[in-house]
Specification:
This protein is an all-alpha fold. It folds into two domains: about 150 residues, Four Helix Bundle (Hemerythrin (Met), subunit A), CATH 1.20.120.1730; about 60 residues. The longest helix is centred in the last third of the chain and has 68 residues. It starts with a helix and ends with a helix.
Length: about 230
């Protein structure tokens, strides 16, 4: 499939399915968004070189265009690695007033037509190349904003995870406090029972040791979540 037919393929609506997010997943999306910035500049550079007759420049530019297009399709439609458009912030960035998706698809279409014209020696090739070069800078601004959205979402997700972790740790601490009270009361009962309460005292002591270990793990987890 050539680039022109690829960009004419309609893109599905953004996915609204529930997505299990993680730090690794956000890193993948940020990486893909950053790849669009790099490959957009690369394809324009090699389109210019192709117009000057440099060997294999058209092929290199087409490879960059394919990487650019594949990254965009993955981020919008999703695949096995990334979820596509999964939240209101991304839907607004791609399909709202900023029209990020429309700008990107327009650039993809223009790049494909420009490379076709250069390769065939068409009369309109210089005009298409000039337009492609002119579009590169505003496109970069769009891509930078989209990458920023992914970075902001990543920070927001990390903050939510830390809050959830603090909530879980607080619950565990509460359980540990109750267990310490039970252990303390059990040791008192065991002491009063004398020789008959010796085994019960050992169990109460073990329970006390366990709650101490829980306290250590809780504090270690809370300290690492702040980093």
């Amino acid at each position: 499939m050539n680039q022109s037919s690829l960009v004419r393929t309609s893109m599905p609506a953004p996915s609204s399915a529930k997505t299990k997010l993680s730090g690794e997943l956000f890193a993948s999306m940020i990486n893909l968004s950053g790849r669009r910035r790099f490959t957009s500049q690369r394809l324009v550079l090699y389109a210019v070189l192709a117009s000057l007759g440099h060997e294999r420049a058209v092929e290199t530019s087409r490879d960059a265009l394919k990487l650019f297009t594949d990254a965009h399709l993955a981020l919008v439609n999703g695949n096995q690695q990334v979820p596509g458009v999964f939240c209101a912030e991304l839907e607004e960035a791609y399909f709202g007033s900023a029209q990020g998706d429309r700008h990107i698809r327009s650039f993809i279409d223009l790049a494909g037509r420009c490379l076709d014209a250069i390769e065939s020696g068409a009369r309109q090739a210089p005009a298409l190349l000039d337009k492609l070069v002119d579009e590169a800078t505003p496109l970069l601004s769009v891509l930078n904003r989209l990458t920023q959205v992914y970075e902001e979402l990543s920070k927001k997700h990390a903050s939510q995870v830390r809050k959830q972790l603090h909530g879980i740790m607080n619950d565990i601490e509460s359980i540990a406090r109750q267990a310490r009270m039970v252990s303390f009361n059990a040791q008192i009962v065991a002491a009063r029972a004398g020789q008959a309460g010796k085994e019960f005292s050992v169990v109460a002591g073990v329970l006390s040791d366990i709650t101490g270990e829980i306290d250590g793990l809780v504090h270690e987890a809370l300290n690492s979540s702040v980093a």
